[in-house]
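Section 5: illustrative case.
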């Protein structure tokens, strides 16, 4: 798989994508917040892949939050651009955290807004992040929420192949 990378305003693009969920979040009593610091360097992403990354992460945050807020943060640090999606939803058990990015792994719980899902969303997100030469990890506390944090190098991609 190859990416078609182009220079983007990552904050504006991410805010636009997340805004798709604004009315659903408001109807659910969830505040959707986006904060971004100045990104001084050029950022290159495959826009279609970026859309899938953000839509999956925000969709999951809404799905597993009954109230409160979802915070999307974007900042630049140490030659990388960082993006995090944090919620104060039901959280993920510690013994499940190392499995959530595995294909077809579903966490059985009764606290989410919906039990739908195939267990491939986060596996796909991880692969798309890797295609951007980035990394992603999750931190979570049951009953308190989750934070999905990703970091991407600030480099111009001519093309990027999946070598897995």
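Designed sequence:
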């Amino acid at each position: 798989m190859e990416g078609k990378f182009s220079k983007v305003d990552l904050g504006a693009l991410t805010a636009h994508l997340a805004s798709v969920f604004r009315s659903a979040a408001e109807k659910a009593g969830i505040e959707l917040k986006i904060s971004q610091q100045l990104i001084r360097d050029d950022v290159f992403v495959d826009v279609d892949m970026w859309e899938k990354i953000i839509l999956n992460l925000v969709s999951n945050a809404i799905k597993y939050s009954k109230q409160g807020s979802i915070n999307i943060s974007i900042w630049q640090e140490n030659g990388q651009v960082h993006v995090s999606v944090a919620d104060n939803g039901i959280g993920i058990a510690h013994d499940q955290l190392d499995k959530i990015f595995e294909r077809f792994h579903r966490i059985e719980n009764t606290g989410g807004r919906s039990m739908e899902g195939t267990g491939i969303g986060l596996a796909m997100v991880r692969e798309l992040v890797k295609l951007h030469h980035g990394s992603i990890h999750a931190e979570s506390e049951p009953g308190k929420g989750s934070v999905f944090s990703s970091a991407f190098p600030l480099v111009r991609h001519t093309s990027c192949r999946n070598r897995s």
